[in-house]
Amino acid sequence: MENTHVGPFLILERLGNRRQRVFRARQTEQNVEVALKFIGMPDKSMRATAIAKIQIEVDVLKRLHHPNLVRILGAGLEGDQIFFASELIDGESLTSALTRRNKFAADQVIDYGRQIAQLLVYLHKQDIIHSKLTPDKILITGDDVIKVADLRLNRSRRRRWDSTKKREMDIAAYMAPEQFSEGATDKSDIYSLGIILYEMLTGKLPYALDTMGRMARKKMELQAPSVAEQVLNCPIWLDRLVAQMIDPDPRKRPHSTRAVVMAFEELKRVDQAKTSSVSQVSGAFNPLTAGADKSEANRLLGKKKPKELEASLFQSIWFLVGGLALIAGILIFAMLPTSSRRNLERAEKLMNSDDPNSWIIARDYLQPIIDRGSRDQFFDDAESLYFESRRRTLVMQAEQGRVMATQSRNSQRFSEGIELLHKGELDSARGVFARLAESVDPLGKERHILIESTARLQSIADQLAAGSDEALEQTAADNAVTAEQVRAAVTQEEVELL
User: Fold this and answer.
1) pTM score, whole prediction
2) Mean per-residue pLDDT, 156-179
3) How many Cβ atoms sit within 10 Å of the Cβ of residue 420?
4) Coil, strand or helix: which one is 38?
5) How distant, in Å, are the alpha carbons of 356, 368, 389, 413 from that of 392?
6) Of 153, 194, 192, 197, whose CA–CA distance to 174 is shortest?
7) What CA–CA distance (Å, rounded) separates 198 from 217?
């Protein structure tokens, strides 16, 4: 694709490997260089939906600003491909640095790890996860600032609209075990970062590359070899932190990325103070010592053990409380999936009906699942069906000209846009839908209006392009313009309209 034009961009050269399909490009009018990444477009029947969802995704991603994140600038359409434009970073990928250096010093691993963890804290607060964090998506600038690239709008335990079951081995090597079956969560990002830290310290992955099935089983069943077994001068707490981050059981990993950041900050303080390993273990609570066994360190320091009776009583109380909590949790979660599954099945049957009243009733079954949020394994499907119900109701009322005072202002504006479409006033209708696409919150309660408005914009663009096609063909006949030039002009206009 080098030296070809894509919309307003001139492709200059490929960045990274061929599978990634990322290119350096120049915005010709502003003479600004960017990075373009291409993804495949679904089949034609899904075209309008895909473009609408991409627009929503880009609207969210463009709002993200963090010193360790590669900024998303926009997206466009070229033929059967969608491209994302992002800021161009002058730096080396961590993959390249690992190939060149093999290993990193512990202090540099701590610094880079802390920067990545800080970005993950920011993303997780926005209810966004990376889910595919790998060394080739981590860039290192000349002044040792980390920039994480290739971010998409991923939600915890929720499938993205264009997600597939196909996995590449070089990505799977960094995936958490639960991602092979249940989907990614905040804890999955912690695991992926742990694997990256492991590789930076040892120069190799904890699990050898194998078939996808065998790798998944290893990650689920086997503890990784410790870093300290391979790097003798690895600080004790860095070894412990990495081991916690890549534990097969998500519950045993650090409880949040904020805890990981605190651990890195503590590691830095420990390194600066040159505190002895024994004192570190026996000291007061900090993010690094959570869950550590201090008995051996206390023995070495000559500290007395607690009285056996007090220890036994303390353990008994916590055992009782923990047992009751476990039983309560089992009972609750044993009941929730069955109820949610039944409600979801009822809602799906109602949504298969042509009766608009059935769509409204379906929302009553879906609402309890949505109220439980991502804690419910059926949340993703329920939320999608819920907003599909609202979208259908919105379109039906607008097509029938039913504008009610109880409707929100955005719903009324959408109906105004539909009325303009019926009158053939495409430009005015496009203005209404464009304002809705800009003003409606992509994550809010009216996202169904945003999805449908964006789809209407694409439909209008297609109609205008079709009209331009007829006009261009007539001009071609009058002026002997070639068919190739006609098609090129239409394609360029379509990109600009997007």
Assistant:
1) 0.57
2) 68
3) 18
4) strand
5) 8, 20, 5, 16
6) 192
7) 19
